[in-house]
């Protein structure tokens, strides 16, 4: 009896020790950058079985994907979400022979092994794609950690991101946009305008437009959320209800959206528009 309860205690203790921490997630995103730079997925702490790898919502063999190509990375940003044991990384590869902007979400298990890697991989012909422009602007933005006193809750950060996506289907939804607010959509940028004209306001889309399949990574320290999603309407070669893989990285400062980065995949060049 006593032996059993001791075992139980030990099992409980090891579970606590194995909890997800920011520093373990930072190790995972650093390893991801090294893996993508060298084209060697084996540099990642991958789960030994049942690894799910996909690009643009298509499951594939990790050894056949972009992660198995050495890519020169010019710039990167990551979010770390200990509550979900998840990470997000944005890679800007403008000087690579084949330019890319890649958004990647990774999920880790309780042994801190990666079980899921999914990426939105954009390149020439995708929505507003221009890796040179993306690099030029992202480098100038300030995404410093938010001081504890000014940090927003997960709910506020997620709510701001959701409102931004929801307004596309309903223009009467109030989005907490800051002034200035810069949107980097592919390589096109609102942030070079004057601070007062620098806004992330959107024209209304034809209704109804429902952005579904949302998958979140939230980082309160950075005030940021990334939302992987399916974006309808854009791809002209398909019916309006058809969704293309998309990801929106959103930085919130004191409750207001400060930066938005969008990457969206097109099936036909420039989504036929
Ligand atoms: C394998 O992955 C699937 C989908 O993520 C999950 O439902 C299942 O429980 C996993 N199986 C094992 C043995 O881990
Ligand atoms: C990725 O970003 C980190 C944090 O800004 C930086 O220290 C590192 O040099 C970057 N790595 C590459 C390959 O750009
Ligand atoms: C891409 O962005 C760069 C830097 O902003 C700009 O000089 C270039 O003209 C853009 N290319 C296209 C095709 O728009
Ligand atoms: C649009 O948003 C407004 C404000 O949140 C809400 O009152 C209204 O019910 C929404 N309309 C639809 C069709 O969802």
Automatic annotation (TrEMBL):
Q: Which residues form the signal peptide?
A: 1-18
Report what the protein is called: DUF8021 domain-containing protein
Signal among keywords = yes
**Residues covered by the DUF8021 domain:** 150-264
Xref: Pfam families: DUF8021
Keyword line: Signal
Q: Organism's domain of life?
A: Eukaryota
Q: Source organism lineage?
A: Eukaryota, Fungi, Dikarya, Ascomycota, Pezizomycotina
Asked if Signal is a keyword of the record, the answer is yes
- Source organism per entry reads Diplogelasinospora grovesii
